[in-house]
Queue: 2 jobs
Job 1
Amino acid sequence: MENNGVESALKVLEKQLNKPLITALEVCARCGICAESCHYYVSEPSLKHVPAWRAEQLRKIYRKKYNLFAKLFPKIFGGKELDEKTLEELSEMAFSECTLCRRCTFNCPLGVDTPLIMKTLRAMAVAGGKAPEMLTMLADSAIEKGKNPEFFKELFLQQIKELEKELQKIVGDPDAKIPVGKKGARVLYVALAGAHTIIPPAIIFYAVKENWTLSLYEAANYGVFLGDTERAKLIAKRIIDEAKELGVQEVVIAECGHACAALVWEAPNWFKEKFPFRMRNIVELIAEYVEKGLLKLDKSKNPEPITYHDSCNLARTSGIFREPRIVLNAVAENFIEMNPHGIENYCCGGGGGLVALPEYEEKRLKAGKPKAEQIRRTGAKIVCAACENCRLQINDLNSNYNLNVKVVSLAELVVNAIVIDRKKKFKEERAEERVSLR
Amino acid sequence: MDFLSITKLIASLSLIFSISLILYQWISLLKKPKVMDYSAPKGSSLKGIIYAFTLGMAPWTKESTRKHWILYLRGILFHIGIFSALFLFILRILLNYTPHLILFPLALFACIGALMGLAGILLRILERNLREISNFDDHLSLWLVSIFLFLVVLSSISSPFTPYMFIFSSLMLLYVPFSKIRHFLYFFFSRIFFGIHIGKRGILRKLEVIHGK
């Protein structure tokens, strides 16, 4: 029984040994220059927080299996046999000591893809039965939902009807809709669980008269956090199938870093298919609305100093860092950049699924210290983050480090600044007013 | 055959052996199935690759090399020294002499490289992180390459050193395909993959938003 887990893990390693992974395992010069690029190391300069050290733990296993000298003289040439105890240690490290943020890769003179090595370790952990239960449970429940959509659809539609009333009240239009299952819509918007990811985009779509429909499913993909391609694929399939069935032109993903990275960059490869629709993050769509002048915006509605946290999955993984700034410059009176920002931004510490794992709360709060210090140095009162997990983490950092900031999504800031002329009926009931969510 | 010719022959055979094994590893890697990428591009992979091998290697483009530019410079000079020494070594095998016009600058770079190698050896012993993440192969590889550089320089200055340079080089070359030294082979793949990432995902064309002060 013990060996089965180890054997399964080693089979996963063998299966995943493609060009990029072999390259990542072989190319490291162990120069150590990656250390300070890692937020874990910056918050606590210990050896186990050096990205090269973490990756070396899998390299030892790899060398023992595939390198002649390491097979013959493992202690000398850095080889190590994988056993149950080691698999457990590696699993703990992969899920709690790396957020897959890619900052090390971008700072490495060789470009070593350490996140790829960590994802491989996660996949090995899943195969060896060592993955965190919470992530597995969340992934499996999403898969079940996809298998039986009719089961929850009725309840979902009822909830959406309630949100629709809220939308109508806010925009002052009794005909405003949150369409679900609308065939021929241009945009299929995939929200996250929670009205806060539905209402603000619905207001924006209303303001630009977008032809859109809301997905039945959430964008979050816990299969990605597990490094489990099979689970990730099943979760993504629900959305892909829905988009195809509705014949939409594009799938727009909520403000969520990993969901965007998964659907835009990984899902086509899981399915080995170029999808018949475009896929992008809502931040990119809003930026397009702003650039085309489709939104009437009043910056003075966001007067407080605002800073922006670049989510790793949006910036370093998906190349989305110009678009949020296009939007922020249009909706914020006082936008202050963090230092560093863009693709050099520090991870908030909550990525890679960590915010969903209560057993690692202390670690992630500690690892988030560099981000907390960045925020504090800006003097901002509001932190905008276009990623749900980042917002959850930064909210926790806010409490833990007494930052005294409010954490908001980009859509919330936009909605705050939108100028909508409310319908005459509502105008008679109140004086013409600017729409605000606050 | 005199001593010099024998050692030259051994060095030549070692070089052929080393190149053959490295080529075999390269071909084995190339033979791995191509990883197809079906995602829609936001930019040019080719431009990303070009960038990764040119400006992307410049010290100001990464926080790590901006902060640690001395270490970065040490690494650059070390590798320039290696290429210079290898070139001199091959010339000594193919020709009985090295033209002075080439000999002096190459020997100078090899000498600087050797000193940078020595600096690297000391760093790997004295600096905690480097010491802990290094294994015996890391240390041995650095010693072998650094001594090789010194011997190439010595043999350039004084011919009696040449046979010993050939013997030592043979040992190093026999070790290369099994050691950390072969990471140079994977360097090209690593930069290509990185280049594809930043090019295809549109990161490259937005370099105006990279970092703070």
Job 2
Amino acid sequence: MVVPSGDGDDLAVGIDLGTTNSVIAVIRDGQALVIPDADGNRLHPSVVTFKPSGDRLVGAGARLRRVVDPRNTIFSVKRLIGLPFDSPAVKAALPQLPYEVREGPDGAPVVVTRTGPHAVIEISSFLLGYLREQAEQYLGTPVTRCVITVPANFSDGQREATRRAGELAGFRVLRVLNEPTAAALAYGLGQKINQRVAVFDMGGGTFDVTLLAVRNDFFEVLGTGGDPFLGGDDMDQAIADMLALEFLKRHRVDFRTDPRALAVARITAEHIKARLSSDDVISGTLKDLGRGEGGEPLPLEFRITRAELEHLITPIVDRALAKCEEVLAEAGVRPDHVDEVMLVGGATRIPLVRRRVAELFGREPRADIDPMEVVAEGAARQAEILSAPATAQGAAMPILVDVTPHPIGIGTAGGYCEVVIDKNEPIPSEHTHVFSTARDGQTEVVIRVCQGAARVFATNTVLGEVRLDGLRAADRGEVRIEVTFLIDANGILQVTARDLVSGRAAHATLRAAGGETR
Amino acid sequence: MTGTDFWNDVLRRVRAIDQLSYYEHLGVARGAGGEEVREAFVARVTEFHPDRHAREIETEPERARALVSLQARLNEAYRVLSNPQRRADYDRAVAGGQMRLIGRAGTRPAAADPINHQAKRYYELGLQCERSRDVPGAAMHFGFALQLEPESAAIRAALARLGIATPAERGASVAPATPTPPQTPPPPLEPRQHERLPYARPIQLRCRDWKHFITLHTRDLSRGGLFVKTASPLAIGTGVQLSLILPDGTSLDLAATVTHIVTADRARPDAMAGMGLRFEADDERNRKIDELVRHAVGAAARGG
């Protein structure tokens, strides 16, 4: 049982599976090592393309095909994973995706390419499998164990889907870890500090803020919150829309109806956003966004200043800052009581974001942290902790206690919601509730589970239901059922039910909102 | 550290999990200060956290489950004892023999009568109704009692007897969604056949000679009628048609008569402008109204 970590097939990696880019890292001799692809790229684009030959291409090579083959080049699947097709999140994402997404037989979104339909989990597993190959080639050993990070605000279903994608890629998934927490782990490990740390994590698709108390390798999350639809992609979209309006004004053609032109505009927008983080102005010409009546290519000249960009993205930054204040208030921590501020994710490289965060906390964020790699590094640290043999578990091993990002509730009579697990409860968290039957002769109970604390059940995000049947028929109120809600260290909910009188534990399944059974 | 002694210790702790107070779980005295509580938590976690035994429990699901349960309870203990408000609530709960702030029926003392004297009065009225087989009346009185004393096992048991599911017992402070005390406890202000119950919902209403329904909001409901909020109440004696949404999503159409009104200029904070309507219902409709009242009581019991 005792096998030294880092030995052969035992190698455990940390993976930051991003909306736009992914990073994979491993701990070697105590040092974090970010694994590059064959060309030396340390950021692996989260893109999968299906070529006309039927070959699948992932990573940097696939990204280039976003323009030439937008219908078969799949990106931003993190915006779809673990969500039902008819969810508002998926509805919001679809107009921005040039590839086809349909509703699958289980209610989950399915991506349709020239090679046929692919479940979103499958696309994610292709990304993870590619990362695994990169690591195996680079390290020269099999890699079978990993920690995968997710946004702190990911729901139960999104976490579970991510975990399953990892398993589909051949990994043993040791932990689904929150991205900001991973970043804090990478930062605070091995340092004799006693600090309150705020992690401001704004990536491509989602925004999280997490507060931690870090003391001598004991990492205690005090509170977390976020917005699953807020990030750099929204800024790209705002810039692309601005280009489209300019084009429309000039040529009376809306290029957004053309997936190829839209892809060009989005990629240009990403470029403009990145360049204006260092430059004050950017200008250029897009040659072929649309065609005139005679079929002639229509150009678009643009010139954008940093001030114009900042004006454009201020509403997005405002939303993030407001969320940040809310999380501080919930945790009962004043901004000036935070000792360190860490910036994580690509969008935090934008000067406006850095400036506004510094204003809120009254201190400059740390400048010595790589916002793109720190999450994968923290994941690799956690992977090492979870792979350490028992004999190595001395006082030196760090411990991480994270929290629940959302309250979990159940449906009660009259369509109301009763919270069974609060937001910001340390995990693992286990609660037991006792219910009794409401009708004479009732042999089945259904417990509906939701995420959220709104009084009316239906206004929360429904996670699924637990059905417990085969109860003995008795007068109402006589059959008492004990239901245990456990949020494990992955933030994934498990529900079990037991008949208290007979002691019979009945099989209970939480049916996920996509219709999937687990 | 992870030998047989360790696992025996873990199993012993898990077996006794519901018999130990949070103080005992963390191994601190009642008066322990915040820093002491934190240090004790860190020490326990350092010893028992599942992550510290991850490799060992990968192939031992039962040991893994035991450590997860133990860690969950340590987390709960720390969360409560490190927060002054939660700790004060817990100290009251533990004085009553409750080992957790969030409930588990097995650890509660036997159901005692309500303590709050008003809650006790409603509880006793409920018992009277129950004896005379007046289920809606009993449900309503028990619902009021529960609003005044949400922790009472006796009231919850009474509601359970009537088939109104009350979620398991829980502490008031850790559960923002648990019953909030009613703003105005509804004492019987005037002699009326049926007691009123808070019931704020949109309903559809029209006069018999109107073409369209309008949407108004209700304030309260009884088996005899309901009170609708409006700044321009209709004249007393006016006949109206109502459409209520029942808990199962179907609608119930009813005739009613305006029996009393509070005009906008006479409205006070405790008597809002609006009109009281008396149902004119047949047996079938009365049965449905009873059902609605029972659900409303259930909702009121949970602070709805």
